[in-house]
Amino acid sequence: MLQLIEHIIRISSRRDRTEINSALVDAMRDIFEPSALAVYRCYPCAGETIVFACAGLEPGGQFSHNAYLPERRYCHPIDHDPLLQRCQKERAIVRETLADGSDRLAFPVIRQEQPIYLIDISLPSDFPADRRVLLMGLVEYFGHHISLLDYGEADTLTGLANRKTFDKHLFEVLGKAADDEALHHLAGPARRREASNNSHWLAVCDIDHFKRINDTWGHLTGDAVLVKFGQLMRDSFRYDDQLFRFGGEEFIAVLQPASQGNAERVFERFRKAVERHVFPDAGRVTVSIGICHLQPQDTPTAIIDRADAALYWAKQNGRNRVACYDTLVTSGQLAAKPVK
After folding, report:
1. What positions carry a catalytic annotation?
2. What is d(CA 137, CA 91) in angstroms, rounded to the nearest whole number?
3. Pairing state between β 322-324 and 287-293
4. pLDDT tens string 104-156
């Protein structure tokens, strides 16, 4: 019991999702000695669910990946694993017997009636019943701690990540961009050519004439527009893209590496989705979007300045359009921002 209390204290002291996942794995390894363990984060994606193995135990030892930036090589559709799929559908603990006679169990961590994490653990068939109860209690505690973290990281109106978490997420993306740049120099010529054509992209998305919506229809209608706008963002971008409500009617999206052409197509598809949607009371609403690519040595301020410059150009040139900072500078339509 003392060992459990020590691990709960360690978990409760963490405020970073990646560290919380690792602390949970530490606790389960020390207390229950499982033969295998994986902590999966769940992402809805175009009618299916993607699961990301962000921490766990494997034959080579313990592993942990950045829980905020799901790497696709550690992700797969949930229907590739029947036990995890059952756990998601039943929203309850499920079990299967493995070939060696041990039990594999999957525990859901549920928020707003949907699993947001799945805990996958393999234990001996004679694992004592009282220890199973202890295991269930630890998973439940983990779920409560994650819910508190989500509450602090999410915008209460739209459910997207909030302004407070933006800098932390962006620094992590910039760190990954720097790592990618280093690997780019070590890679072969073909890989270097592929990498040089792909970058992380950031967009500032601003709802056009939002003040007019509030003034005409009232703030409740304005809030309803913001909620639906956030949902359209979730529906339009990939599960591993980062979405934020930056403040008021301004939203930010950070894309995983893509070519400029692909990035512009993604944002143009989102712009059209907003334009086509009929919002209750407010009717048709449009969005202006300014985008720029992330550079390895960037700062959040420099990136936002470039995207804002493109957004301002879009607003000044008809609104309801996507403007790329890099293209505008190259074409001479926008002066380059000084490097900070």
Report:
1. 249
2. 16
3. parallel
4. 999 999 988 889 999 999 999 999 998 999 999 999 999 999 999 888 889 99
Torsions phi, psi of 190, nearest 5? -65, -45
Element holding 329 (H helix, E strand): helix 325-330
Considering just the CA atoms, what is the radius of gyration of the chain in Å? Answer: 22
d(CA 206, CA 309): 13
Contact 155, 79 (CB under 8 A): no
Cα separation, 154 vs 336, in Å, equals 34
Instruction: Quote the CA–CA distance of 278 and 284 in Å, as a whole number.
Output: 5
State how far the alpha carbon of 37 is from the alpha carbons of 50, 62, 177, 280, in Å: 18, 9, 30, 46
Maximum distance among all alpha carbons in the chain? 72
Distances (CA, A) of 195 to 68, 183, 190, 259: 22, 9, 9, 9
Query: What is the distance between the alpha carbons of residues 240 and 17, in angstroms, rounded to a whole number?
Result: 15
How far apart CA 228 and CA 157 sit, in angstroms, is 10
Contacts of 77-81 with CB under 8 Å at 24 or more apart are: 77/48, 77/49, 77/50, 77/51, 78/42, 78/48, 78/49, 78/50, 78/51, 79/48, 81/51
* Of the candidates 29, 24, 97, 21, the residue with the CA atom closest to the CA atom of residue 57: 29
Choose among 78, 85, 33, 35: nearest CA to 59.
35
Cα–Cα dist 61/301, whole Å: 39
What does the alpha-carbon distance between residue 184 and residue 318 come to, in Å, rounded to a whole number? 39
Contact at 8 Å (CB) between 97 and 127? no
Closest CA to 263 of 211, 325, 316: 325
Specify whether the CB–CB gap between 153 and 162 falls below 8 A. Answer: yes
Measure the CA–CA gap between 321 and 268, rounded to whole angstroms: 8
> 322-324 and 61-64 as β-strands: parallel, antiparallel, unpaired?
unpaired
Q: How far is CA 8 from the centre of its chain?
A: 26
Using one digit for the tens of pLDDT, what is the confidence trace for 222-264? 999 999 999 999 999 999 999 999 989 999 999 989 999 999 9
